[in-house]
Amino acid sequence: MTWVLIGVMGALGALARYGVSGIVQRRWRTAFPMGTLVVNITGAFAAGLLLGIVTGRAVPDLALVAAGIGFLGGYSTFSTWMVETVLAAEEGGRVGVRRAVENLAIPLAAGVAAVWIGFVLGGLV
C-alpha cells in the first residue's frame, strides 16, 4: 500500500511541477529558468513547513512518506536544476559563467531561506 501511495503522490507532484513550471516560464520569458526556481523554492518551503508541523508531534509515518517523499519528491527537481546550470555554462564566455553561477547561487540561498521560513511557520501551527 505504501508503494502505491508514494507512486500516486509522486505522479501528482510531477504533474504539479510540470504545470507550475510551465505557467511561470511562459509568464516570465527570460533566459533564467524561473519555472524551475519557483518550483524548487515552493517545494523547499513546503518541505520546511511539513518538518515544522511534524516536529514534536505524532504524525502517521504514511502521511509523512506520502507528502514528503511522494508529492514533494515528484514536485521539486534537483536534476533539472543541475542540467539548466550546465546548459548555461556551456553558453560560454562571461555570460554563460555568470548565468551558471546565478543558477546555482540564487536557488541555493532562496531554498535555504524558504525551508527555514516554512519550518518556523510550521512550528506555529
Question: Would you give an account of this structure?
Answer:
The chain is an all-alpha fold. It has one domain (2-124). Helix content is 85%, strand content 0%. It is built from 5 helices and no strands. The longest helix is centred in the C-terminal third of the chain and has 32 residues, at 93-124. The protein is globular, with a radius of gyration of 16 Å. The mean pLDDT is 94.
For the structure shown, list the relevant keywords.
mainly alpha; 0% strand; 125 residues; 5 helices; 85% helix
Rg to the nearest angstrom? 16 Å
Q: For the residues shown, what is the average pLDDT? A: 94
So what's the overall shape?
Answer: globular
Low-pLDDT windows of residues: none
- Return the domain count: 1
Number of helices: 5
Strand content: under 5%
SS content category = mainly alpha
The largest pleated sheet is described as:
none
Strand tally, please?
A: 0
Helix fraction bin = over 70%
Topology as a string of helices (H) and strands (E)? HHHHH
End-to-end CA span: 29 Å
Give a brief rundown of this model:
This protein is 85% helix and 0% strand. By secondary structure, the protein is mainly α.
How would you summarize the topology of this molecule?
Layout: H1 2-27, H2 34-54, H3 61-75, H4 78-89, H5 93-124
Helix pairs in contact: 1-2, 1-3, 2-3, 2-5, 4-5
